[in-house]
Amino acid sequence: MSGGTLDLGSGTTCPGGCPNLTFNNCIGNTAFCSAHVLPVTLLFFTLMEKESSINLNWATASEINFDYFDLQKSSDGLNFNFLGQINGNGTTNERHDYSFEDSFPFIGKNYYRLTSVDFDNYRETFNVIVKEYSGEKDFKLSPNPSDGQTITLNFNFDSMGGQVVIYDNMGSVVDSFQANEGGRVSFTNTLKDGIYFAKYSAPSFTKATRFLVKR
Length: 215
Hints:
This protein is mainly beta. It contains no helices and 16 strands.
């Protein structure tokens, strides 16, 4: 501290010497001096396992200039993907309760991360919470209907080593590919409008699911 100011590094200084130091008029970008008001006061964020889903519940004590919650999910606690967006209540001093159902949890550990976003796009991310899920293996396709060009494979387990075969409504094979870890795949040829079946096969699990192509 020199000349009645506190030097916080990176070119940031705050006026007023001890004992009258103030952080109201800092010059610089150091987060320590930020006067931004946090958009929400979070009371709790909890998880509950059900037979085929995980329910997420949380509540706020107050919200200021608050736009929405960004909810993300991960199978390893490191790589998160979008799960849902839940609208906030603007500015309020009343308690508000929120809930979200993850209808397709991973078998094993599921990590969830909640981020609040205000109307100025200021973001605050809360602590990651985790829940173990012990349901049955499942395989789904999205979107349904498909555009006939691409489709996304969704697994709630490690699908490495499995194969997906696409059949038309007459039972003829129209495409096939390795499942790998799921994700978006492109059909070899654009599928015509109609009903199709996707069959996932692996030594430990087999399932066929119907989907519609509509362009």
